[in-house]
Amino acid sequence: MYNRRMKRRDVFKTSVAAMLGAPAAVAASGPPKLKITELKLLRLRYPGKTERKRNSILWSGGGAPGMTQLEIHTDAGIVGRSIPAGFTNIALENLAPLIRGENPFFVEKLWDRMYRSWRKPVAKGAVIQAIGAVDIALWDIIGKALNMPVYHVLGGFSDTLRVYAAGGYYEEGKGLKELAKEMEGYVAEGFRAVKMKVGGESFATDLERVRAVRDAIGPKVDLLIDANNKWNAYEAIRFGRAMEKYDPFWFEEPVEPDDFKGCAEVRAALDVPVVAGENEFTRWGCRELLEARSADILNLDTVIAGGITEYRKIAAMASAWHVPVAPHGNPFMAAHLMAATSNALIVETYPGVESKFNLALPLYPVKDGFIKMPDKPGLGIDPDPEMVKKYRVG
Fold it and tell me: What is the CATH number of domain 36-147?
């Protein structure tokens, strides 16, 4: 409460603390005094076997389902978690010594330290993916320490997010009927946008697949088309023009990822929005995409691009070009960031995989094409202890 003997700066500190629901002493003394002690991996493996499927270029699946989490432990007992995109050995062996003993609240400092330590050669690829996984786990710690969801810590923009169901892969024995049934299933689950693969079959076959899905989902559900970098520019333009009659919501990764000019040619030739960025790293890679006018929408991956700390900069840069962001990859890593981002468009989810094979981390419920942000502290991805006890393998 205010009294006449309090100084103006004391009134300010007390007011801020009250707004945060914290004692005035906490606001005056800075961030909580935490120290990072160690990095570990949590590996869970579940019974069964995932289906073999492919996009336009690669096969995946066919093994035991499971989940790996990167854990960052602190001296206060708070454990930050993220779901890495591979290369966990770099996080454990090379990045851990750079952040051990540090306060996770200095997340910008730690990101810069991890990045600058790889200046020769400049950090790209696997290194940035590892940095991204570490960074996201640091934000999980911060949210838990403040007893707030991460998107509130970041500065919330919306507590609901539009999502789409990513599927439509090629599989053995999967014809038009099975593809249509899959997409109809996503709509029945509450999705109002679905994504399918193209580029893995002939021009005529893929065009017929697009037609079959549009007929199955009807005109009111958005249809996203993903070529996974299969074509050169003239091939992508030809297919794009042929499929435009089916009213696609976007055309994703139509050309090879390093062909910025080719992607710009596709964008200029078509009315459908072109999406790119999934294979890029950091704000510097994003800058080149934007300067080349390669994309109407950016879909950099939250982990692969460098984590929440870096993606905030990417989203801000894109907003200056009036370009929305729609992140590729794991929704648990992307949702909090997007809920704090003004130019967020839509978030990718994988109901055909996650809902069936990740027993410890069920997907967010979808209603009328949207998810409601969780109110748990941090990212809200801590697995149930009983699940860990039952399925832990490392």
Answer: 3.30.390.10
User: Which CATH topology does 153-372 take?
Assistant: TIM Barrel (3.20.20)
Residue 190 has pLDDT above 90, yes or no: yes
Predicted pLDDT of residue 29: 63
CA-closest candidate to residue 353, choices 114, 51, 98, 126? 51
233-243 vs 203-217: helix crossing angle, rounded to 10: 40
Give the start-to-end residue ranges of the domains of the chain.
1-30, 36-147, 153-372
Torsion of CA 252, 312, 89, 32, to 10 degrees: -150
User: Residue by residue, what is the 3-state secondary structure of 203-254?
Assistant: HHHHHHHHHHHHHHHCCCCEEEEECCCCECHHHHHHHHHHHHHHCEEEEECC
- C-alpha torsion sign, points 138, 143, 147, 149: negative
The answer to whether residues 330 and 303 touch, using CB atoms and an 8 Å cutoff, is: yes
Look at residues 147, 176, 15 and name the one whose alpha carbon lies nearest to residue 76: 147
pLDDT of residue 394: 77
